[in-house]
């Protein structure tokens, strides 16, 4: 009986370990994490190629950030929440990082090549907004 | 032996079920989810009481949204990503919802009381930006 209990316990423990390793890892964005949002304001005549941005530009920049990068997100502007007002932004790309100074140190030497890639997907000069996650 | 296997299987399955119920639920923001961001632009003389916003205003509005609300976030503006440029926003509150029309239907009848609460924490007129999660 004791042996059976031990076997059951081992199986249960192994099962739990396998389960916890098997589940997809979700990056946890905690209070205090830094967001660097690259915001592309909408205006008449402005263009934005989301497919290039998603498949080429953002993965390239994310690749420069190493383990400081918690996750990155991309959103596509749909509307102004107030009727008959212009769309505020065509798109926003956001890097969630542990450290702003590490972000700046990683991006600094790559700034020229990042900017040179802008013309491949947009004619907008982005606004860069740094904020802290409160909740 | 068959019986022992069945018992082990039942224990394992029960263990898994208990484990999956015990872990903290993390709201999953998937591609296609709608973001409604209430953005408070910075300007000289503008004020923003983050404590009131976090503990009173945002929980009140979130309470109007029911199961359509996936999660909400709050961020505090720190800097413009370009040196010597003004801070773009003092704060941003964001509701992640499954359906924009359900959001509008829930907020519509409450709009006056939501706006009446603005003066309790800020003198800024927010910009409301609706976007779709691409990644």
TrEMBL record, chains A, B:
Residues 1-20 form the signal peptide. PANTHER family: BLR8190 PROTEIN. Residues 51-121 form the EthD domain. This is EthD family reductase. Keywords: Signal. InterPro entries: Dimeric_a/b-barrel, EthD_dom. It holds the Pfam family EthD. The keyword Signal applies. It comes from Dyadobacter subterraneus.
């Amino acid at each position: 009986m004791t042996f059976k209990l031990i076997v059951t316990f081992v199986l249960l423990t192994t099962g739990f370990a396998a389960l916890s390793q098997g589940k997809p890892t979700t990056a946890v964005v905690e209070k205090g994490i830094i967001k660097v949002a690259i915001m592309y304001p909408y205006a008449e005549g402005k263009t934005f190629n989301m497919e290039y941005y998603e498949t080429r530009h953002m993965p390239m920049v994310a690749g420069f950030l190493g383990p400081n990068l918690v996750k990155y997100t991309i959103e596509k502007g749909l509307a102004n929440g107030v009727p008959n007002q212009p769309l505020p932004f065509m798109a926003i790309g956001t890097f969630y990082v542990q450290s702003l100074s590490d972000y700046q140190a990683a991006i600094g030497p790559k700034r020229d090549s990042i900017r040179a890639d802008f013309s491949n997907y947009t004619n907008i000069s982005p606004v860069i907004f740094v904020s802290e996650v409160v909740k």
